[in-house]
Amino acid sequence: MATTSHHSEEGKERFTFFWRTESPFSQFHPSCFKVDDVTYCCAEQYMMHQKAVVFEDHEIAQQILETDVPPEIKALGRQVRNYDDEVWDDHCQRVVKEGNRAKFTQNPHLLKKLLATQGTTLVEASPNDTKWGIGLHEKNPKAFNRKTWRGQNLLGAILTELRDELLADRAGGSEESTSEEEKFTFFFRKDSPFSQFHPAQFKVDDVKFNCAEQYMMYQKAEVFDDHEIGQQILECDVPPQIKALGRQVRNYNDEVWNAHCQRVVKEGNRAKFTQNPHLREALLATKGTTLVEASPRDRKWGIGLSEKNVKAHNRKTWRGQNLLGAILTELRDELITEGSGSASESSSDDN
Fold first, then answer.
1. Rounded Cα–Cα distance for residues 63 and 66 (Å)
2. What is the reported pTM?
């Protein structure tokens, strides 16, 4: 499989599937580019080299630069000494995006192919990868509905976000496209409309929720068939208590939840913002910026930094992945693209 485009079963979201080396979106696809005067042969080489740099394994880093066979590069990356999974998680998505930005902006034929996917979500249909891909082959019917994906599709999400940024740069004209400074909309506490704890009535499948956190924790209980905790979550209207209940879910498995959590958060926030016009307006008003959860303690959903920290204003110095901010940014851009459909969506709120 190289690259193909399909509608999802629901007829709303369109996917561009990719996987193997021949696809221009693969990390293994041959593509010469430079970053800081260092030449790379593919995005995988950049990623693994930066992995070695993060952990100061200069010997492995040099071996990676001297290798031009992607599987061997990947294998070398697994040999990096002093590796720490949590530390790498704080860096890996930024690294992948940086590498792919250089790859596509420095290779016009690849850029053309990336921009041609406009209006679709890029999906790495790797049956074996539940982190960067969806854990499913394109031929699997479950691949056509993100609700049934087995993986997070981090690579696909990063490429989709990058493509939309490059399209926005082009549409913005020369002044915007030549600016290297990224604009951020920071949020953190409950009073922000972008917080998971912010009060917001909405329905999903005829079930009422009082905030996005409640939806997330309820779905967590559902994934692991803990209906007792699920019911307690629905009966609670205090977000910190809802979060605490979510931590009590029985039969919890971190790998399984990681395969579902980003989809769940996006679904909950789509319902929250489309069913509450004042919240939707606040979200759309952030157009042109990246939403950033400036939580000093959360390195997964936030950036692990307060907004007041100077490092918060440069994504290269973030300490966290900002998954919530990335999801909200992606959702906002989708709602803007949907445009004329917004009125009918927001009118569906019957709370």
1. 5
2. 0.56
